[in-house]
Design a protein that fits this description.
- By secondary structure, this protein is mainly alpha-helical.
- About 85% of the residues lie in helices and about 0% in strands.
- The protein contains six helices and no strands.
- The chain has helices spanning about 1-20, 30-55, 55-80, 85-110, 115-140, 150-174.
- Helix 1 packs parallel to helix 5 (about 115-140), helix 3 runs antiparallel to helix 4 (about 85-110) and helix 3 packs antiparallel against helix 6 (about 150-174).
- It is globular and about 50 Å long.
- The two termini are about 25 Å apart.
């Protein structure tokens, strides 16, 4: 839910951010397409990495790297050194890692549910979608004409998701 909220925040802020703040109205679709193409490739690469390293390692690597990219982008923005090309590169890299984390960690959360997996998937999906919509809306409402709201939302929600995943992994091992 937390990580999906960052995706919804990106969707809510991408057009005004790319189009208005960076003046890319005519090329907005190309910027979004570039990110989507990288995410598609990332999904394929993820499917090849999981048999080698396991879903836990791939998912946690994706999530930790996502948070790391968001932190780097925040530092760069506060140094007033974030041109559009670098923002697009970092956000695209974040979305690549989002793809790894979301696909694997979401599936892992259902792994031990056995006979109730279908019901659990429905409940999980409903809560995830509702919560992510609210969180993404908050990021969108905080948009101030800069990438700050998106990057702070991505960093904070990603960090909470990372801490939650570590906690869940630790409690499963005990």
């Amino acid at each position: 839910m937390l990580l999906l909220g960052t995706l919804y925040g990106f969707i809510a802020t991408a057009q005004p951010l790319y189009g208005q703040a960076y003046g890319l109205e005519d090329r907005f679709a190309l910027a979004m397409a570039a990110t989507a193409i990288v995410q598609s490739i990332a999904a394929f690469v993820c499917s090849r990495l999981i048999p080698q390293f396991g879903p836990q390692a791939v998912g946690m690597t994706g999530l930790a790297t996502y948070v790391g990219f968001a932190a780097v982008a925040l530092i760069i923005i506060y140094l007033d050194a974030l041109p559009f090309w670098l923002l697009l590169l970092i956000i695209t890299a974040m979305m690549k890692m989002f793809t790894w984390a979301d696909a694997t960690l979401g599936a892992l959360s259902m792994a031990n549910l056995g006979k109730i997996a279908g019901t659990a998937a429905s409940a999980f999906g409903s809560v995830q979608q509702l919560g992510a919509t609210l969180l993404g809306s908050i990021i969108g409402q905080c948009y101030d004409g800069t990438p700050r709201a998106l990057l702070w939302g991505s960093f904070l929600l990603g960090a909470i998701a990372l801490a939650s995943a570590f906690w869940a992994g630790k409690s499963q091992r005990q």
